[in-house]
């Protein structure tokens, strides 16, 4: 799919991978940061791929709050605003309104879900792109029930992080449970 609602964590992780950026505030290992950087670089270069944004600019405000004007991620987002698809998202105060089944979803990410659903309701085909936020795994069933499509840039790494945080969710035989309780190995 060519249209994407991009989670802020994608912009942060890609910015941390940019050799020119002083922004290194991420727990994602360098090899995974490079994967995210490559995705964002390809997204930037492809004029046929659009950013989906809410007309109320809630997503953009979050981008600007978490990134500086020099960070690679915000540079790409600002460039993509020229061709972005803007959708109407209803807000109830500070947070976007989402279907009842997603009421327990992270409040700050509700605007991403609402923008994605609004775009699809208008006939668009889009994904929500995630790099490292495990909430997308935690609520995968509820998201799927609402027709939300999440594109995981680091599916194995993010799944392991989710299981590390929620060892009770590890399916029997999937992985060594003790490995996830201990956390990821030290990264150079």
Report on this model:
With 188 residues, this protein is α/β, with parallel strands linked by helices. 44% of the residues lie in helices and 13% in strands. The chain contains 9 helices and 7 strands. It has helices at residues 8-17, 30-45, 58-66, 72-80, 110-121, 135-138, 140-145, 155-165, 177-182, and strands at 3-6, 50-54, 85-87, 91-92, 95-96, 126-130, 150-152. The strands form 2 sheets. It has a 5-stranded parallel β-sheet, with helices on both faces. Strands 4-5 form a two-stranded antiparallel ribbon. Strand 4 (91-92) and strand 5 form a beta hairpin. Helix 1 (8-17) packs across helix 2 (30-45), helix 1 (8-17) packs across helix 4 and helix 2 (30-45) packs parallel to helix 4. The chain is globular and about 45 Å long. It starts with a strand and ends in a 6-residue tail after the last helix.
Would you kindly provide a brief summary of this structure?
The protein is an alpha/beta fold.
- Main sheet record: 5 strands, parallel
Return residue spans where pLDDT drops below 50 for at least 5 consecutive residues. 177-188
Radius of gyration: 17 Å
Instruction: Give helix and strand order, one letter per element, not per position.
Output: EHHEHHEEEHEHHEHH
**Gap between N and C termini:** 35 Å
What proportion of the residues is helical, as a percent range?
40-55%
Number of strands: 7
What is the residue-mean pLDDT, rounded to a whole number?
A: 89
Physical arrangement of strands within the biggest beta sheet: 3-2-1-6-7
Strand content: 5-15%
Count of discrete alpha- or pi-helical segments spanning 4 or more residues: 9
Content-based structural category: alpha/beta
Shape label:
globular
